[in-house]
What we know:
It is a single chain. The chain is α+β, with helices and mostly antiparallel strands. The protein has helices at 19-26, 50-62, 64-70, 124-137; strands at residues 33-38, 41-46, 72-75, 80-81, 88-89, 93-97, 102-103, 106-108, 114-118, 142-147, 152-160, 163-171, 175-178, 184-187. The strands form four sheets. It has a six-stranded mixed sheet with strand order 3-6-9-10-11-12, sandwiched between helices. The chain starts with 18 loop residues before the first helix and ends in a 6-residue tail after the last strand.
Amino acid sequence: MVTISRMPHETTDEAPSTRVRELFDALPPLPGLRVEIIEGNIRMSPLGTPKHQVLAGRIFRLLMPVQDKQDWEAYPGVDISIEGPRDTLVPDYALAPKDCPLWGNELRSRGVIMVAEVVSPGSVHEDRVVKPKLYAIGGIPVCLVIDPVANTATVYSDIVDEVYKTKITQTLGETLHLPEPINFELETTELTE
């Protein structure tokens, strides 16, 4: 693993620049792989299984009313640059205003409204622990974790000192309230396998 030291928490219009970032940016397209910078390390994982992709697509469809009502954009598998540590994460779903600021081709985390992850057996720790922590550091107000491994849906919100202070977990199949700025009752029945 390659490790870098953290850059100070600052916001600039320039894309982040580190050796890891340079290597990340120089990688050719890698079909079938998701490439991320997580805690200063480049991580490659296979794209989700067909079931994983179906669940991500269902999240997209279930949240269409929110997207349409607010005139926001929904992104499946978009690169998000986490302001602060400058990691690059690729959530299964992201919701952002149409004018969300960018660093190159990546959405800047402080402009993103919500992200969602679908837990895979090979990424349980990252999806349940590491990514929500980084999304909070990046200032993303709402993080949804759909966990077919544990049969749960968890929503994180209320960031204080770069940590989500509220965590609500429901069994898949129950209704889960997505707090402001989403303010939506998510019916998770369609997210059960």
